[in-house]
Amino acid sequence: MASAVFEGTSLVNMYVRGCWVNGIRRLVISRRGDEEEFYEIRTEWSDRNVLYLHRSYSDLGRLFKRLLDSFPEDRPELSRSPLLQGLKGGGCGGGRW
């Protein structure tokens, strides 16, 4: 159970194929003092279809790599995405995308 959540840098609101996506970097500190950074991602297809995901940096790094592998024709566009810029700035391991 987290004792505190701190909001950090917000990724730019993105509109992707009919869906609004917004990501916020957060830091959780447990009662024992352990810290964990993660992103909260909110996707909204319509007023009644909203999904919240909480993912760590490594999860998002793997997701982004899979997107690049799955959509090679979109690689140039994906490499300029705010998600990648947020991950690079957030310390997700400095992986090569």
Automatic annotation (TrEMBL):
One Gene Ontology MF term: phosphatidylinositol binding
Composition bias type Gly residues, residue spans: 87-97
Species this chain originates from: Anas platyrhynchos platyrhynchos (Northern mallard)
Coiled coil: none
Residues covered by region (Disordered): 74-97
Protein name per UniProt: PX domain containing 1
